[in-house]
Amino acid sequence: MLTSKQRATLRAMAHELSPIIHVGKAGVTENIIKQADEALTPHELIKGTVQQNCPVSAKEALAEIAEKTGAEPVSVTGRKFVLFRPRPEDPGLRV
Question: Which among 25, 24, 21 is positioned nearest to 68, based on CA atoms?
Answer without folding.
Answer: 21
